[in-house]
């Protein structure tokens, strides 16, 4: 798939600012510092489009990007970067504001085409499993991606990915996509999954 155009549209800090108009939306969900912005830049092949930070919790709003491709299966869509859950160096009050914002987006947006759940391959937490379970409960079967696989030793890769799959609750038949923003591994596979998302 070739990306013809990718640009930042806006940041939403309340549900009334969520997109309207019917264009399909693909949302990216994950723990703080899971590598979400790096993956988005890699997926769209646009360096610096989504702002990358080493500080967990940098994304504090629902950020919307417009994307155009040369693929007839998914020619135009909105990519939605949601705030990371879990640890972040911000006030408790601000973190509490994020949860309803994320939940309302994922529940209310009727044009939500697919949800991508990012899990760091080396660190799987309780919230990751809870997030997948919650997404399933509200009607989304997320595409699950294991990030930062380039940091896993080759000798430990199979066992690491199997552990991620088990801890997230994926069945043997459900796919887990290993992804490296550094090398581009998993990019084509993720696009293939996004062009044919499965909802519950």
- CATH fold description: Rossmann fold
The biggest sheet, with number of strands, parallel, antiparallel or mixed sense and barrel status, is: 7 strands, mixed
Any idea what the CATH architecture is? 3-Layer(aba) Sandwich
* Helix/strand order: EEHEEHEHEHEH
What is the CATH class designation?
Answer: Alpha Beta
Count of runs of 4 or more consecutive helical residues: 5
- The figure for the number of domains is 1
Mean pLDDT: 86
Kindly state the number of beta strands. 7
Termini separation comes to: 26 Å
Poorly predicted segments: 54-58
Please explain how this structure is put together.
- The chain has a single domain (3-194), classed as 3-Layer(aba) Sandwich (Rossmann fold), CATH 3.40.50.300.
- The chain has 200 residues and is an alpha/beta fold.
- The chain is globular and about 45 Å long.
- The chain has a seven-stranded mixed β-sheet with strand order 1-3-4-2-5-6-7, sandwiched between helices.
- The protein contains five helices and seven strands; from the N terminus they run ββαββαβαβαβα.
Compact overview of the structure:
By secondary structure, the protein is α/β, with parallel strands linked by helices. The protein has 5 helices and 7 strands; from the N terminus they run ββαββαβαβαβα.
Task: State the main characteristics.
single chain, 200 residues, alpha/beta, Rossmann fold, 7-stranded mixed beta sheet, 5 helices
Please outline the helices and strands.
Elements: E1 3-12, E2 25-30, H1 36-44, E3 62-69, E4 76-81, H2 92-108, E5 112-120, H3 126-137, E6 143-147, H4 157-168, E7 176-178, H5 187-194
Parallel strand pairs: 2-4, 2-5, 5-6, 6-7
Antiparallel strand pairs: 1-3, 3-4
């Amino acid at each position: 798939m070739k990306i013809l155009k990718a640009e930042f549209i806006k940041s939403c800090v309340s549900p009334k600012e969520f997109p309207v108009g019917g264009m399909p939306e693909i949302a990216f969900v994950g723990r703080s510092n899971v590598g979400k912005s790096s993956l988005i830049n890699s997926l769209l092949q646009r360096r610096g489009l989504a702002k990358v930070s080493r500080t967990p919790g940098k994304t504090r709003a629902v950020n919307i990007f417009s994307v155009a491709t040369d693929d007839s299966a998914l020619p135009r869509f909105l990519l939605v970067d949601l705030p990371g859950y879990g640890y972040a160096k911000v006030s408790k009050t601000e973190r509490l504001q994020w949860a309803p914002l994320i939940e309302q987006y994922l529940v209310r947006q009727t044009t939500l085409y697919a949800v991508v759940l990012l899990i760091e391959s080396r660190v799987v937490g309780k919230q990751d499993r809870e997030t997948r379970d919650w997404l399933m409960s509200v009607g989304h079967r997320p595409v699950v991606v294991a990030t930062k696989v380039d940091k896993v030793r080759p000798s430990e890769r199979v066992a690491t990915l199997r552990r991620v799959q088990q801890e997230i609750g994926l069945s043997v038949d459900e796919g887990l996509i290993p992804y490296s923003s550094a090398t581009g591994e998993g990019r084509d596979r993720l696009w293939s999954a996004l062009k044919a998302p499965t909802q519950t």
